[in-house]
Amino acid sequence: DARVRGQTGVVSERRGSYPFIDFRLLNNSTLSGEIGTKKKVKRLLSFQRYFHASRLLRGVVPQASLYLLDEDYLGQARHMLSKVGMWDFDIFLFDRLTNGNSLVTLLCHLFNVHGLIHHFQLDMVTLHRFFVMVQEDYHSQNPYHNAVHAADVTQAMHCYLREPKLANFLTPSDIMLGLLAAAAHDVDHPGVNQPFLIKTKHHLASLYQNISVLENHHWRSTIGMLRESRLLAHLPKEVIQDIEQQLGSLILATDINRQNEFLIRLKSHLDNQDLRLEDAQDRHFMLQIALKCADICNPCRVWDLSKQWSERVCEEFYRQGDLEQKFELEISPLCNQQKDTIPSIQIGFMTYIVEPLFEKWAQFTGNTPLSENMLNHLRRNKAKWRSLLHKQHSSSRSNDHSGQVTGSQEQTLNEEETP
Question: How far apart are CA 304 and CA 90, in angstroms?
């Protein structure tokens, strides 16, 4: 269970024809020693900033303002937190208002709102230190899998935990596990997918025997940070072990390769009407489903937010494709910028992954206003991507006479509509 830190920068050792790829060098980062120093300084500054902000959030006015220029931003951030349960919550704006500390600020607020600090007798300084560790272990250079994505998933999870069908049965432990898993579900993500790690013989692929490689790493990293921070050290050993195992079960459920497994099981429960949320096992299963929904809820957000996330995830795909091309590896599906367009990727994702899951989630919740709202956004967003795809096709056809688009290329474009 020992935590692996700072090692996902190296994708592979030189073996045979496989290249040595160092993400830190590719992203023009500084040397590891400098990174460590900057992280220590950033952590101290982050806590100082949070301490001032938290006083304002609690309504405590300091004797002398430490950051006069930030007062307006703190006020806006506080106002946004009062609406953290709204589905149109703009996590990008919140991240700017919190100076890039959206995940830490959000988690501190939600742990307080849900009464978790008091219930588990958590030390506030230790809790904040742990949240900062989690936030810093996300790679800010990743367009999609970064701390803002984690904050977005956590905010969505908060919304789902408030759904009456689930909320009426949740214990404080359930809520804490749901929020922690949401916050840490992609921690230390290297910005490439599992097939990339496998074909480049990354040490994590070997460590986890090519099974849920990233998810296992996210879980183990989270456990390492929990132990390092000693956040739960005052709890009985068996309670800590149970929390660690349940965190693993939740985070591992986000493996997209297990989508059908969970969907079939959810359909069975709904068809048989045999979910008993008084049972801890059934509650845990629905927490897994809630986390899976939160993780892929971007297409269910308002268009302006959804479009940003779509562009970010595709940019990350394309970066992987560029790496694969550079090192003469086969380009992974969805990672070829010349072939895989953003509209086609999103339409396929919505059709085969998002819609089936959210339709069953709506059935579970009893078609609540939130579920209906999400499905309406999903349908509208899908229609907009179809419209954009149609425009791309029309533009390609208009250029056909100039030889810019060949018949085979047009056929490929048409095939993308049903990936």
Answer: 10
Which fold would CATH assign to domain 72-394?
A: Catalytic domain of cyclic nucleotide phosphodiesterase 4b2b (1.10.1300)
Buried b (16+ CB within 10 A) or exposed e, 349-378: bbeebbbebbebbbebbeebebbeebbebb
Q: What are the Cα distances from residue 15, in Å, to 202, 209, 210, 329, 419? A: 11, 18, 18, 14, 34
149 is in an annotated binding site: yes
Q: Where are the domains of the chain?
A: 72-394
Distance CA 288, CA 369 (A): 21
For 138-186, write each residue's pLDDT tens digit: 999 999 999 999 999 999 999 999 999 999 999 999 999 999 999 999 9
- Find out whether 131 and 117 touch, Cβ atoms under 8 Å: no
Tokens representing 290? 């809630």
Annotated binding residue 189: no
Find out whether 4 and 200 touch, Cβ atoms under 8 Å. no
Which sequence positions are flagged as catalytic? 145
Plot region of 230 (φ>0 → left; ψ -120 to 50 → alpha; else → beta): left
Find out whether 90 is annotated in a ligand binding site.
Answer: no
Adjacent-strand bridge partners of 10: 22
Q: Looking at mean pLDDT, say which of 30-39, 64-73, 111-120 comes out highest.
A: 111-120
Read off the pTM: 0.81
